[in-house]
Structure to design on (449 residues):
């Protein structure tokens, strides 16, 4: 059991993978500081040391508390977060930050603070969630919390780039939609685990398609519809796309019905067409995606500059601290610390560095799906699938937008982009994965420790 101090779990694989990763973070800071200073000056490594201590402390606590969850997840998160911290420390620190209670923190320091909060939340869930009953049996309560978060955003939120996503809570601003992802996954996992047999065995034929009976499917569909309508009303179509992908993936995993996926894809295409016709900002983003050079100094400014940055990076990159982040005192790419941080990383680390970052994300997704496959029950499996899909799909959406594969959306790159709400939500999902894997004992089978 977690908390049995007499039974320490020596998480050897986790230590062996974390150790070189954490060593590379201070090295990245040093290289960046030298490049920016133009002289062999090590510079201030306080934030790098703090980052190393946070993850080392998390590892030691998991060892001491006898946690037997997956041992590859924390190193993957540490690697992604380390790349993000190095890049955020390299960018102008006045892009964002915290000013509260007499404390003035720059962007990278604020990000490190949120990493600390997120790691505490992750450990609390990974260690404290011994029984998932509070999640499984109170799924409708969690759904009500999610709708309340959205309603609060609709009433009290303010707009950023045309989307009403943020609520101002005095010294900090929060993005409730980030936590809504978790609440939605918990509800869908609980409902599908309860009705999985009925949804799989019973069906109604409509032509060549097999659809689930409405009495079993309607409650989940109605709640999901309400959530999607509010999200669309908030002009947060990136989050709407993410939620739809999570819902469709969990439904397919729970039932194995390809017809459900086909129906979902048809609805997605129809909904996208309707959104394009009804919402001016959607039409504008699609038009910019199709031809950003039509207005390179206006609507197409961000994607055009991103394309140039990717071209400058090439295969091997310009080098840490040597990218063209600013020109004449102005950012070459607006919102480079949030929406376009992947582009900045690809410019300085090149295609190889970008692929390495994607590789870390793929490790996280692979281990999350493995945890789902080895889970003890349907709820744990679906919960793991849901949070893994959320992290993986969010990564694909933002990188696809940066590289012009899909229209740009305003969501963040997990553990890499600047943003406290995103960091906290991502660590909560990692805590859920560790909790599920501990109960199924995947760590012992995965590493032989």
């Amino acid at each position: 059991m977690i908390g049995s101090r007499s039974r320490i779990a020596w998480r050897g694989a986790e230590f062996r993978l974390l150790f070189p990763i954490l060593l590379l973070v201070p090295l990245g800071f040093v290289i960046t500081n030298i490049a920016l200073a133009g002289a062999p000056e090590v510079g201030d490594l306080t934030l790098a040391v703090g980052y190393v201590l946070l993850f080392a402390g998390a590892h030691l606590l998991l060892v001491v508390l006898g946690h037997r969850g997956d041992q590859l997840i924390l190193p993957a998160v540490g690697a992604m977060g380390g790349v993000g911290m190095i890049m955020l420390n390299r960018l102008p620190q006045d892009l964002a930050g915290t000013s509260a209670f007499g404390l003035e923190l720059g962007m990278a320091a604020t990000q490190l603070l949120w990493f600390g909060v997120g790691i505490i939340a992750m450990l609390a869930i990974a260690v404290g969630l011994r029984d998932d009953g509070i999640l499984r049996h109170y799924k409708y309560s969690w759904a009500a919390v999610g709708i309340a978060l959205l309603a609060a955003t609709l009433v009290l939120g303010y707009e950023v780039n045309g989307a009403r996503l943020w609520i101002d809570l005095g010294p900090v601003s929060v993005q409730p939609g980030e936590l809504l992802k978790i609440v939605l996954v918990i509800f869908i996992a609980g409902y599908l685990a309860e009705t999985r047999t009925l949804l799989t065995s019973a069906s109604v034929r409509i032509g060549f398609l097999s659809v689930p009976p409405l009495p079993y499917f309607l409650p989940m569909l109605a709640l999901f519809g309400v959530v999607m309508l509010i999200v669309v009303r908030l002009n947060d179509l990136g989050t709407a796309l993410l939620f739809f992908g999570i819902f469709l993936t969990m439904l397919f995993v729970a039932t194995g019905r390809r017809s459900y996926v086909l129906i979902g894809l048809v609805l997605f295409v129809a909904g996208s067409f309707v959104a394009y016709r009804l919402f001016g900002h959607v039409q504008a983003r699609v038009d910019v995606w199709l031809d950003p050079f039509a207005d390179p100094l206006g609507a197409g400014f961000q994607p055009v500059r991103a394309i140039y940055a990717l071209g400058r990076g090439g295969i091997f990159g310009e080098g840490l601290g040597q990218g063209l982040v600013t020109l004449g005192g102005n950012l070459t790419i607006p919102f480079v610390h949030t929406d376009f941080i992947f582009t900045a990383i690809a410019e300085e680390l090149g295609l190889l560095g970008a692929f390495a970052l994607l590789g870390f994300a793929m490790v996280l997704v692979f281990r999350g799906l493995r945890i789902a496959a080895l889970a003890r029950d349907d709820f744990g499996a679906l919960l793991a699938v849901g949070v893994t899909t959320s992290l993986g799909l969010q990564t694909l959406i933002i990188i696809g937008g940066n590289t012009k594969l899909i229209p740009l959306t305003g969501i963040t790159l997990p553990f890499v982009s600047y943003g406290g709400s995103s960091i906290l939500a991502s660590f909560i999902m990692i805590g859920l994965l560790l909790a599920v894997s501990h109960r199924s004992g995947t760590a012992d089978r995965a590493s032989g420790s």
